[in-house]
Design a protein that fits this description.
CATH class of the largest domain: Alpha Beta
Structural class: alpha+beta
Shape: globular
Largest sheet: 7 strands, mixed
Number of domains: 2
CATH superfamily of the largest domain: Periplasmic binding protein-like II
Strand content: 15-25%
CATH architecture of the largest domain: 3-Layer(aba) Sandwich
Distance between the termini: 52 Å
């Protein structure tokens, strides 16, 4: 069937550098010390949670039709171009010719359809609700038909708001199955899988056939090193070349070493305290005064100074200020007296024992600081440790109760954050309000950016008025860079804290 040429509203064509035999061969090895235990589930994009962390592995192994990369906020990747019909209901993508997965299989439109249909990670529900069908027009052309115009289709499909646009090999996956794929993933990204020692390290090797360029560094070793101090020591000793997400005190120590760099990220991440039981009338957190008490109990500026050297702006809403349609508001002031009075007014003049407190792994100073401020106000809780993959899973399955500290760093805009965490049907929402749900549906249909912004601002203001969350601060993660790195590329990708792996360079 010949492809139908759609009336053109949006067309993007970017010719990337094509790998050639004349390109310099990859050389050397770089080691990254990760702040969390790397989970095998992160090798498979189909289950990716609404977090940026898995993309640090996903975009090394895999590629997407369109995605952010250096110089492109959302550029054509496996697809050389795409177009949107004037009515906003049809998107057509044309793949680059000659693309191959790491095992030699060609990348085709059928792989694109297969990858989309098996996707069940963050955003899967809204994508399935709004996409009528995915049509394979030809081996290199795939067409998405929407049920109605949806201005955020490309935000959900083409950024790290979800991993739905990442393409995996249908033939290989069908042959080996999901479990075997996690043990030996095959992708079309700049690096191919070599080995995995669970809880220890993942080894990747440069894929010379990657469409953008031949990677400079031959071998990447991703080590799981949950302790920030250990990551800093590894940088100083030369055992690691990049240390991800350093705690404030460790980053401060590295800054005093002239051999080291500390780079702050520019991605759209934010911390907040979730009130999981606020929808339960029997819970103390059902009382708005209790939730307000938590908000007034937090000294956000001091948490910022302790955890990230003053680089993390205190937050007043859970949509990062750098996102499109984010409501720019001041955070609640720190007022311990008011916090205690609100607890007393709610029936807890002597405070309360509030059970376990779970902080998202990888940020010990933030979690401990939040817990200390809650304790000072009379909200007594005990910290419970967990691992990052388990935290994501427990959050989605609503196993985390009471209060817990979370953080989200994937890209998108205010609508993608509302979809996942604020509207009642969100995959990670514990409840919601009918008026917010209605506003969310209204903005999803609205193609006028100014009108959408007004609707999304209203939703965010309602979360503040109802004290649905206790925002803490926007996160600028601190990344340590050792002396062997000539070019780290950490801030080169829009709204990502991870390097552009194929563009990294080592010193001779």
């Amino acid at each position: 069937m010949a492809p139908v040429i759609l009336p053109l509203l949006v067309a993007v064509v970017v010719l990337g550098a094509t790998p050639s035999a004349a390109a310099q061969a990859p050389a050397g090895q770089a080691t990254m010390a990760w702040h969390v235990t790397i989970a095998p589930s992160w090798f498979d994009p189909s289950t990716a949670p609404p977090q940026i962390t898995p993309f640090g592995i996903l975009y090394a192994l895999h590629d997407a039709l369109v995605r952010p990369y250096p110089g492109q906020k959302m550029g054509p990747s496996l697809a050389e171009s795409w177009r949107e019909s004037p009515d906003g209901k049809t998107y057509e993508f044309r793949l680059r010719a000659g693309l191959r997965f790491h095992n030699g299989d060609p990348v085709t439109a059928e792989d694109v359809r297969f990858s989309f249909e098996r996707y069940k990670g963050a955003g899967a529900k809204i994508l399935q609700e709004r996409v009528r069908q995915v049509e394979v027009v030809s081996p290199l052309v795939v067409r998405f038909q929407l049920k109605e115009p949806w201005p955020d289709f490309m935000t959900f499909y083409g950024t790290t708001a979800t991993a739905a646009g990442i393409v995996v090999p249908k033939k290989y996956l069908t042959e080996v199955g999901d479990d075997a794929f996690k043990k030996h993933p095959i992708g079309a990204g700049p690096y191919r899988f070599v080995s995995h020692k669970p809880g220890v390290e993942v080894v990747l090797e440069a894929y010379p056939g990657y469409w953008r360029r031949v990677p400079n560094v031959k071998t990447l070793v991703m080590k799981s090193v949950p302790e920030s101090t250990t990551r800093a020591v590894m940088l100083k000793s030369g055992e690691a070349d990049i240390g991800y997400v350093l705690d404030g005190p460790d980053a401060e120590g590295l800054k005093r070493d002239p051999r080291m760099q500390v780079v702050s990220s520019k991605h759209a991440s934010i911390f907040w305290v979730e009130f999981a039981d606020q929808w339960d009338p029997k819970s103390p957190w059902h009382d708005k005064r209790m939730r307000l008490a938590v908000n007034f109990a937090l000294n956000r500026q001091q948490i910022n100074e302790a955890a990230c050297l003053g680089l993390c702006p205190p937050a007043g809403v859970i949509v990062p200020r750098v996102m499109d349609f984010a409501l720019q508001v001041e955070p609640p002031p720190y007022d311990l007296t008011k916090a205690k009075q609100l607890l007393a007014d709610a029936g807890y003049p002597n405070g309360l024992d509030a059970g376990e407190f779970v902080g998202i792994p990888g940020f010990p100073t933030v979690a401990e600081s939040v817990l200390n401020y809650l304790t000072a106000a009379g909200i007594r809780m005990k910290m419970r440790a967990t691992e990052r993959a388990a935290f994501y899973s427990d959050w989605k399955e609503k196993k985390l109760r009471g209060l817990f500290l979370t953080a989200v760093g994937n890209s998108g805009n205010a609508a993608s954050r509302v979809e996942a965490f604020i509207q009642s049907k969100g995959a990670y929402a514990y409840g919601g309000y009918p008026d917010i749900d209605d506003l969310f549906l209204q903005q999803a249909r609205e193609r006028d950016p100014k009108k959408r912004e007004a609707l999304l601002h209203k939703i965010q203001q309602l979360t503040i008025d109802r004290a649905m969350f206790a925002p803490v601060m926007d996160l600028r993660v601190l990344m340590g860079v050792g002396p062997r790195i000539a070019r780290h590329t950490i801030t080169d990708i829009w709204m990502s804290p991870f390097p552009s792996y194929e563009d990294m360079e080592l010193k001779d």
